Amino acid sequence: MNRRKFLALSATASLGAGLQTARQPSPIPIIDTHIHLFDTNRSQGVPWPDKTDKILYKPALPERYKSIAVPLGIKGAIVVEASSWLEDNQWVLDTAAQDNIIVGVIGNLEPGKAGFEKQLDRFQMSKLFRGIRYGNLWGHDIAARLENPGFVSDLKSLARAKLVLDTANPNPALLAAVVKLTDLVPDLTVVIDHLPQMQVPEDRATQKICETHLKEIGQRPRVFVKISEVLRRVDGQIPTTLDFYRPRLDVLYGTFGADRVLYGSDWPNSDQWLPVEAGLNLVRQYFLEKGHPVAEKYFWKNSVAAYHWQKRDSMQP
Questions:
Q1: What does the pLDDT look like over 184-204, one tens digit per residue?
Q2: C-alpha 314: how far from its chain's center?
Q3: Which end of the chain has fewer CB atoms < 10 Å from its terminal CB, N or C?
Q4: Contact indicator for 73, 91 with CB cutoff of 8 Å
């Protein structure tokens, strides 16, 4: 039996024990920097997920999230956009305002498009509005837009407002774009979402270029990364043993260090893999091995440095 099959099979055997461990609340408070909210029961529907998605197509609202998150020691969460519709920014802000577990919202606005600054002024009137997400989603492409002076100018406005740019769906081209973007707008805080999910290029030449860009980004203090979407499917199985994921985590931690890594569950999108506690159990084990101070940074302190969210509940750190 080869190593990949062994790890995949051992995942099934260890899953029950792993989930039981993860259900115990962590002594370290957790801020989940990546969840999505949407309501499939709205009359206008939602642009995502698709109605045919039997796993995701049901309301994802704060009460449902809390029933999963609170028993795991999660004290607060940042909502990341899941809609390209302008007015859904307001819908998410209104929904978030009704529940104190939400400490921030990353919206969807299009830099370089007419009306950006007006829309930014409108939504940042809410203290929950902490920035926008852009890149490799909804037909967008950061690399292509960096040649547009209006796009860069609007990102400078985002930086002046002390708001954040999250980037979606990382790939080698996006890493190259982040290098160029942070050259053009050095004061902008950038958060690269789900970096563990990026597929490593197969050819060595592209690998080396990617490694160079990753190393360069690692030297830029205003770029954070989410160690999120860690789980992978292998031969139809999803390993839950840390050793399977450790090499990739070691590379990212070695690149960005203790001060610029963030926890995110990606709920409810995470349901396509395993329940939230399975992914949490992996990263909890990994970061606690590095000591309590490092784990604290990963699970909540770095989220304050990146997003500057404000406490809404006495249980929040």
A1: 999 999 999 999 998 877 888
A2: 24
A3: N
A4: no
Distance CA 76, CA 170 (A): 25
Strands 223-227 and 189-192: parallel
Q: Is the dihedral of CA 265, 271, 274, 276 positive or negative?
A: positive
Fold of 3-307: TIM Barrel (3.20.20)
Residue 230: pLDDT over 80: yes
β-strand partners of 105: 79, 129
Question: Do 238 and 203 meet the contact criterion of CB atoms below 8 Å apart?
Answer: no
Going from the C-alpha of 255 to that of each of 146, 204, 231, 264, 285, the distances in angstroms are 25, 19, 20, 18, 19
Diameter over CA atoms, the chain: 60
pLDDT higher at 218 or 141: 218
Q: In what order do the strands lie in the sheet with 223-227?
A: 30-35, 74-80, 102-107, 129-133, 164-167, 189-192, 223-227, 261-263
The pLDDT, as a whole number, for residue 18 is: 39
Structural domain spans, the chain:
3-307
Looking at residue 223, its amino acid is V
Dihedral angle over CA of 43, 140, 309, 226, nearest 10:
110
Question: What are the phi and psi torsion angles at 308 (to 5°)?
Answer: 55, 40
Q: 227: part of which helix (H) or strand (E)?
A: strand 223-227
Angle, helices 242-256 vs 204-218, to 10°: value is 60
Helix (H, G, I), strand (E, B) or coil at 141: coil
Query: Smallest Cα–Cα separation from 306: which of 91, 157, 104?
Result: 104
Cα(147)–Cα(156) distance, integer angstroms: 14
Q: Which amino acid is at 187?
A: D
Contact 35, 64 (CB under 8 A): no
